[in-house]
From TrEMBL:
It comes from the Bacteria. This is DUF4407 domain-containing protein. Keywords: Membrane, Transmembrane, Transmembrane helix. The keyword Membrane applies. The chain crosses the membrane at residues 28-52, 64-88, 100-121. Residues 417-437 are annotated as: Disordered.
């Protein structure tokens, strides 16, 4: 059987809870004096940064743009102040679960609206210039990768000169063997010798053409690196970012031309075509030997030479196509970007700035939650208490004074009414008068 609760113990518990609730209410009364001021300061600060963010988006710096930016920032400040003022008063006061959920969802929706209309502009004001510089630095890296890739392809194409020289040297060696009679068995500079010299000359011309491209490749790569150096300097240079962006754009156009030039300086397509022509365009010299056996030997040697020529041409073509099939540099184009767009594009690099921009707008949400918890604690402390229990000493003193005043008014005697003479009914006595002497 459960024990009965001691009324004295219950009274002491209720008194303690009531004192705790009164203490919390006293703190809230003091805090109410500064809450409005603090909320106003936060709203004004957010409005200032919103003004800076809006100004960065407007191209015109005239009076109309100033008025537009100012009007938007004032509207944001008023909206933030009114929105959080509503929630600070209403959300802690409601008691039903449905009302709390509804107001909480309203708070979430309003917070998203504040982020959409203010926080991203605050972030643009806080980190807009740094975000644009990040965009410039990223673009420099892209251009550097494209320049290095184009130079790698051009240098690899220049390396085909060694393959061409090796094939040419092979034909020179064969022609020397033919001149001494070690190839076809007939010494001299006959048909086979002339065929070998013909292909050796074609390869020598191709080799000279490849070698002539090397100075242009080196000069283009050096100029590209010089442009990259100037672009890096513009990225980290002190001062406003807008003028630097204009100069950066001009240098980017020059560098794009250099990259295109390097791509055009690649001789790999030329070597591919030369390798195809090497075996396809063969002018067979006329055999003038008087001996039928000699002509047959020369014809057999020419067929062997043509076979070797086809094999060497195929090897050279494969090497040139390997260079041509290398992944070309990506098309890099510098696109100017505003501070707001840069902050959004590179948001991951500016998380502290985004956190500060959002916190200045949503910090009152913490105050709302604190007020809600505190009001719930006050209501829990007063639960089960009557009006008499919740009276403080000051309330009791005021009640006693009021009671004394009421009692004093009740004890004051009212003035007695004046009696009026009543009429006499019946015969009236006759008053005798003494005659004058």
């Amino acid at each position: 059987m459960a024990k009965d609760t001691d009324p004295a113990q219950l009274s002491r518990t209720q008194a303690h809870a009531l004192r705790h609730a009164n203490e919390l209410e006293g703190h809230l009364t003091w805090l109410d004096g500064i809450t409005g001021t603090a909320l106003g300061v936060l709203a004004v600060a957010s409005g200032i940064y919103t003004y800076l963010g809006v100004s960065s988006l407007l191209d015109d710096n005239g009076a109309l743009s100033f008025i537009a930016a100012m009007a938007y920032s004032v509207a944001v400040s008023v909206a933030i102040f009114v929105f959080w003022s509503y929630l600070l008063r209403l959300l802690p006061a409601v008691r039903t679960v449905g009302s709390r959920i509804g107001l909480f969802l309203s708070m979430c929706l309003g917070s998203l609206a504040i982020i959409a209309m203010s926080s991203w502009l605050n972030a643009a004001a806080l980190a807009g210039a740094a975000a644009v510089e990040q965009h410039l630095a990223t673009t420099v890296q892209d251009y550097q990768a494209a320049l290095e890739r184009a130079n790698t392809i051009a240098v690899s194409a220049q390396g085909l000169q060694r393959d061409v020289a090796r094939v040419r040297q092979g034909f020179d060696d064969l022609s020397e063997q033919e001149a001494t009679g070690n190839l076809s068995g007939i010494a001299g500079q006959g048909a086979v010798f002339r065929l070998l010299q013909q292909k050796s000359g074609e390869l020598a011309g191709l080799e000279t053409q490849i070698a002539s491209q090397q100075p242009f490749v080196d000069a283009a790569f050096a100029e590209g690196n010089a442009i990259l150096s100037r672009m890096r300097a513009l990225t980290v240079e002190a001062g406003p970012v807008e003028p630097r962006s204009v100069l950066f754009s001009e240098e980017a156009v020059r560098l794009a031309n250099i990259i295109t030039q390097l791509r055009q300086l690649s001789v790999a397509p030329l070597v591919v075509r030369a390798a195809q022509d090497l075996s396809a365009s063969v002018v067979t010299p006329q055999l003038r030997s008087t001996s039928n056996e000699t002509r047959q030997d020369q014809a057999a040697t020419i067929d062997s030479v043509l076979t070797v020529l086809g094999q060497r041409a195929e090897t050279l073509r494969i090497a040139a196509e390997a260079v041509s099939s290398m992944t070309p540099p990506s098309d890099t184009v510098y696109t100017p970007i505003s501070t707001a767009d840069a902050v959004i594009k590179y948001a991951g690099n500016f998380i502290p700035s985004w956190a500060g921009a959002i916190a200045i707008d949503l910090l009152p949400a913490v105050l709302v939650l604190i007020m809600t918890v505190t009001q719930a604690a006050i209501r829990a402390g007063r639960d089960g208490s009557t009006t008499e229990d919740m009276m403080t000493l000051a309330d009791l003193r005021a009640a006693m004074i009021a009671l004394k005043e009421v009692e004093g008014h009740l004890h004051v005697k009212a003035p007695e009414p004046i009696a009026e003479p009543h009429p006499v009914i019946g015969p009236q006595p006759v008053q005798m008068t003494k005659p004058a002497e």
